[in-house]
Design goal:
eight-stranded parallel β-sheet, 14 helices, two-stranded parallel sheet, 12 strands, alpha/beta, about 400 residues
């Protein structure tokens, strides 16, 4: 599989446009290693995966792991779609987890080599029901883009793989793009020559090339998430005004799912879960606003869908996006499981059911890397860290 030249692994560090120390992206939850080293590490990881695959070692190694360790693997996707011309796509490429062909191959592998289970199966096992099979895998999606319905859902249904879709209810109702997506979109589109964001210590030239603008956007996304929620909103709103690019109408390249689509997916056996109302970092909110965000999300889902929801995914999902008060509030409003975006597998102890780790899936993963990542996640998955700022 060829990787587009402006693609960068989710684990790779964003280049710093400043003299200030660059941060690793919380969205990517990457390892705190020097600039450039991680991109090389990703390359080595992929080469190793191809070697293991070509040598036909993966079944034996995966089988040995399965015999020694019993845990649950949850895969985390965002978008599934074919991009076409990269320079014509004006939203976040790093949220495109797979093309349609990649996703079909991945789900076929999961359905034939692993044991796909639903979040409802997971909850039942936690509550004393039938234990999950060895090599159990849960497929999840964050945010709720409409390509989840138009591209991913038909493939899942055809192959008999259940999945859980975590959605932000306010965007379902408005049809508007998500705030971080719009920030990337503005940086792709603006005629401005400098990015001035003193709130986060950023003063950088805006390059002409789209690929370099995407790199700057990754840096900006990481830095903005160090602010509290009000500060994030204020900075994005200021850039909308200064660049005359208001988020005033739905956009076909960044459109959320609708209620009718979600009902159809739930009727077909898919699970729907909560992802807040407006995709806000819950731990960055004032405490009462955070609780209200969770309450309104749960209430809207239970009102609009045939079956009540019980699972939640925390927006952004790193360790600076969820804390003990957030998990307690999630339980108080009626959620029974909570997923992070921290990389790892879950031992299903029960006392950590609101801090479930997952394994991010990224579009640069070829078939060998994907199979190796699921089979041996300790070796081939991305690693997590706490944001440094």
């Amino acid at each position: 599989m060829l990787v587009p030249t402006d693609a960068r692994p989710r684990g790779a560090s964003a280049p710093s446009p400043l003299r200030a120390r660059p941060e690793r992206s919380c969205r990517r939850m990457s390892s705190p290693i020097p600039d450039g080293a991680e991109a090389q590490g990703e390359s080595r990881r992929q080469r190793l995966a191809r070697f293991v695959h070509a040598a036909r070692l993966l079944p034996a190694l995966g089988g040995l792991r399965s015999a020694l360790r019993r845990d649950l693997r949850l895969l985390a996707y965002h978008r599934v779609r074919d991009i076409g011309r990269l320079d014509a796509f004006e939203f976040d490429l790093e949220l495109v987890s797979a093309s349609a062909a990649q996703f079909r191959a991945q789900m076929h592998w999961i359905s034939t080599r692993m044991h796909p289970v639903s979040m409802r199966d997971v909850l039942a096992a936690l509550d004393g029901g039938a234990p999950l099979p060895r090599d159990a895998v849960v497929v999840t999606f964050d945010d709720g883009y409409d390509d989840n319905y138009t591209v991913a859902f038909p493939i899942l249904r055809e192959l008999g793989v259940p999945a859980t879709f975590f959605v932000s209810t306010g965007h379902i109702e408005s049809g508007m793009p998500y705030r971080y997506d719009w920030l990337v979109h503005m940086l792709c589109r603006t005629d401005a020559t400098r990015l001035l964001a003193p709130e986060i210590g950023v003063d950088a030239a805006i390059p002409a090339a789209r690929a370099e603008r995407r790199q700057l956007a990754e840096y900006l996304l990481d830095r903005i998430k160090s602010l509290d929620d009000a500060g994030q909103l204020a900075l994005i709103a200021r850039l909308e005004r200064e660049w005359s690019l208001p988020c005033a109408a739905p956009h076909p390249d960044c459109h959320p799912l609708g209620w009718a689509q979600l009902r159809e997916m739930q009727d077909a056996g898919m699970e729907i879960g909560g992802h807040g109302v407006h995709h806000r970092m819950l731990a960055k909110l004032p405490r009462e606003e955070m609780r209200e965000e969770l309450r309104q999300c749960k209430a809207a889902l239970d009102r609009e869908l045939p079956r009540p929801v019980f699972a939640l995914s925390y927006p952004v999902g790193g360790l600076d996006a969820v804390d003990a008060e957030v998990t307690a509030a999630a339980s108080d409003v009626g959620f029974r499981l909570g997923c992070t975006y921290v990389s790892g597998t879950w031992r299903m102890r029960g006392d950590d059911r609101f801090m479930i780790p997952r394994l991010p899936v990224e579009r640069m993963m070829d078939d060998a890397w994907f199979a190796a990542m699921v089979s041996l996640p300790e070796v081939f998955s991305y690693h997590s860290r706490v944001r440094a700022a």
